[in-house]
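$ run holo --ligand "adenosine-5'-diphosphate" --emit tokens
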Amino acid sequence: MRWALGRMPQEVKAVAANPQGLGMRKNRDLPAIPDATRPEDVAELRKAIAAFNQHTERLQNAYDVLQLRIAEINRELELKNQALEEANRNLQSKIAEVERLRADLDNVIESMGSGLLAVDTEGICFTFNAASEQALGRDRTEVLGRHCSDIMGKAASVLAPLMLDGDRHDHVEMCIPHKSGRDVFVKGAVSPLFDRMHCRIGSTFIFSDLTSQRLLEERARRGDRMTALGELAAGVAHEMRNPLTTIRGYLQILPSMKDSPEFLQEFSENVIREIDRLANLTDDMLDMAKPISSDLEWCDLGDLSEEVLQFLADRFSQTGIEYEIRRDPQGSPVRIDRSRLKQVFINLLINAIEALGPSGGKVQIALSRSEERLARDEEVRPFAVCRIRDTGPGIPQKDIDRLFDPFFTTKPHGTGLGLAVSNKIVEEHRGFLRVESEEGTGTEFSLFLPMGERDPEHPEGQSGPEIHRRE
Ligand code: ADP
Ligand code: MG
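-- output --
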């Protein structure tokens, strides 16, 4: 809007421009005063005219001042108008920029691969992006303006409270029903949403649809199980073939050699050895398949280690291998299937004895505790640890990854099942085995078991590891 003062009417202007004009004209053009006019009247008239002229002059001066002021005000208005136009232009470009940013933000939200659901503090949905539409099979027109629990079906009781409590929740995992009725497995995080004044205006749930990934994983797991089963079957077949071939060979020549006592001696020794080998293989296979007992008992890992050392005392003394045990002064209470775990210790210690061989060496057992996290999103938990260290030749780097594979062995008469079985037993106790080895220096196997919370002397009401079973 432009502002300006109006102009004076033409006649005022004309008079103003020449204020004396009137008087002058009167002086110049006044009709001659008739002689009969009285001199005092003439004098009076002249005085009046002079006064008029004086006023006119003052009026002119005032008008001139006014004109100057008007010009000044017009100039000021002009400047103000220019500033206003500039401000207007700035405002327009700011509005355009905000709109561009908003459009960019909308684009970002729309092209996000993750679903975004935003609700206000009452739980009413106000943003539902394209990825959400795609994942849950719902159009935003049927979601916006509705309460979030209306669209979540059975997941509402879990998700709605999280979206309304104003806190942040990571690792939210759940199944939300797709519009078609099938379950969509989603994983994401709920975060509170604030305005510029840091007032909470709602919450967002940013999630990924992991349904197909889950199906793929399930298929891969099934595939892995089939592969493992195939490898196991091939391993068993291979392991059985050797003793069976030997037995068959002896049986083939038995009829012709049945009168040779030396042959019969050799026959019986070797056939028995091969049959023992088959029996060992069968036992190991059965161990592999057998789940741990559901009736776990409390025991101290230190007591168990000493019991196994006692059991193997002869083997240590025959080979001249020294051993020492350092127990954890605080104790190592664990809840376990005692006989199966004993078997793990025996496997690990016999491996150490076999690794040291006739040249002997030293085996150290050290018990301690440590805080471990099994998965990135799990809390750290206390574990009882038993480290079994030998001064043997160590394990070549290339073999380390295959140690726990069934039938992996570097020994002529090994079954390659000891570590595979041990690993399975430990995993079923929700623990794990770790190996560190340096060639030429020795090997250390560490056994981690979840620790119980109370003194194993008083088992009532204690909590321990839940049993984890393979289906
Ligand atoms: P096996 O004892 O029948 O060979 P295991 O599963 O017990 O089967 O062990 C697999 C392989 O791991 C062994 O053949 C050996 O090569 C290696 N190994 C296990 N423990 C040790 C150890 N303490 N030192 C060196 N190598 C080891
Ligand atoms: Mg072994």
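-- notes --
Residues 347, 350-351, 418 surround magnesium ion (ligand 2) (CB under 6 Å).
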